Predict the structure of Beta-phosphoglucomutase.
Amino acid sequence: MIKAFLFDLDGVLVDTAVFHYQAWRRMANSLGFDFTHEFNETLKGVSRMDSLDRILALGGVTLTDERKLELAAQKNQWYLDLVNEMTPADILPGVNAFLAQIKQAGEQGQPIKIALGSVSKNAPLILDRVGLSHIFDAIIDGSKITHSKPDPEVFLKGAAELNVLPEECIVFEDAVAGIEAAKRGNMFALGIGSPDVLTQADLVVPSLEHLTVTELLSAVERAQG
Ligand code: BG6
Ligand code: MG
């Protein structure tokens, strides 16, 4: 039986995935190369330093650790310039209605706990900017984990803090690495995006606008038999 929903942040609750893409491209451009939207899919859900390593490898650039830290800090500053302009209006379509349905389900005798499962160190700031800090029963962010997605650590810690079993959780993810993390953690993986990209997901919807809590729980029941 499903008892908890674990939400990724960037690209699921807010559109910061686009900000990461813009800031990383700006950094790559400053080093004399560029990368595609398809390559960007491989960065989603991956920690800041691991993302930097992947981008530098793509560009064939080798740097000292000190220079890498400088570049990561520069990218983060460009990213924060965009984040600092955010308001509650930047919550993605369908999210607030979906969160209201979770609350309603609880009032109707089906309590569902919710946690954040993000590898971002900026997650608390972003939640604060869009006014979502208070809604979670547990928040696992980049400061609480040692392994980035696709390692399941972030979601397993979320389940543990909520005191539920992995198989009682649904993970909401827009990243290939995040879906893999959910599956490795033995959780139901709901993909937000395209089924052509999120091929390992148990179910994929274009956005939370296209799903109700009742439909989701029925789909999981059917899948789990
Ligand atoms: C993930 C994003 O949520 O957080 C990645 O999908 C990002 O693109 C990662 O690299 C780390 O984020 P931050 O905010 O700590 O640089
Ligand atoms: Mg994401």
User: Anything to note?
Assistant: The mean pLDDT is 97. The first strand starts at residue 4 and ends at 7. The longest helix spans residues 65-83.
